[in-house]
Automatic annotation (TrEMBL):
Protein species of origin: Polynucleobacter asymbioticus (strain DSM 18221 / CIP 109841 / QLW-P1DMWA-1)
Protein family membership: Belongs to the 'phage' integrase family.
InterPro entries: DNA_brk_join_enz, Integrase-like_cat_sf, Integrase_catalytic, Tyrosine_recombinase_XerCD
GO biological process terms held by the UniProt record: DNA integration; DNA recombination
Start and end residues of each Tyr recombinase domain: 2-188
CDD domains documented for this protein: DNA_BRE_C
Name of the protein this chain belongs to: Phage integrase family protein
Membrane spanning residue stretches: none
Taxonomic lineage of the native organism: Bacteria, Pseudomonadati, Pseudomonadota, Betaproteobacteria, Burkholderiales
UniProt entry keywords in alphabetical sequence: DNA integration, DNA recombination, DNA-binding
Gene Ontology MF terms: DNA binding
């Protein structure tokens, strides 16, 4: 099975530049970056309710508590929100705050919809990456990029396992992409 492409910083910038020219750019930017900066699976991202991410005072939480029904394998986990992601989510909620905090965090244009679901979010990312001319990228690219970037920065595999919700080392290793630039930098450490 072919793995989703891990995006370089330039490719991520290209997708963000594309998003900036489209409708719903604040929402689309937040959806993209929550996968890249928090490593959420698309189904986890699509399941988020406004109250999962925003506290009663209207501030972005430091942590998102994924309930068992939101996480793969039915295992609840804590998702830590970086300051960079907090800024992105804050910008998004300035333009979108639902009347009911139990509504989905990421709205859909369809009036009768309860926001994105896993399938519509997967399609969204497919077409987003296609339109931004990033071949090989898919709905899983953000998660793979998140895990690979942590590994490239020397974050320990056990920490990565905790952040990604993986319970097996082999699962994390499957996600980590290795490229020639990383290999060049590695040999220079000797």
């Amino acid at each position: 099975m072919k793995q989703a492409k891990t995006l370089t910083a330039q490719e991520l910038r290209r997708v963000l530049d594309h998003i900036a020219t489209r409708k719903h750019c604040a929402r689309n930017r937040a959806m993209l970056l929550i996968t890249h900066y928090a490593g959420l699976r698309v189904a986890e991202m699509a399941s988020l309710r406004f109250a999962d991410v925003v506290d009663a005072e209207g501030a972005i939480k430091n942590e998102i508590m994924l309930r068992p029904e939101q996480a793969k394998g039915g295992d609840a986990r804590t998702v830590f929100i970086s300051e960079k992601l907090k800024k992105e989510l804050s910008a998004y909620i300035k333009i979108y705050t639902p009347n009911d905090p139990q509504e989905k965090l990421f709205y859909s244009q369809k009036k009768s919809s309860d926001g994105f679901n896993a399938n519509t979010a997967t399609q969204f990312f497919h077409y987003l990456y296609q339109r931004a001319a990033i071949p090989g990228a898919s709905s899983h690219s953000g998660r793979r990029s998140f895990i690979t970037n942590l590994a490239a920065k020397g974050v320990g595999v056990r920490v990565i396992m905790g952040l990604s919700g993986h319970r097996q080392l082999s699962s994390v290793q499957h996600y980590i992409d290795c490229n020639d630039d990383q290999k060049r930098k590695a040999v220079e450490l000797i």
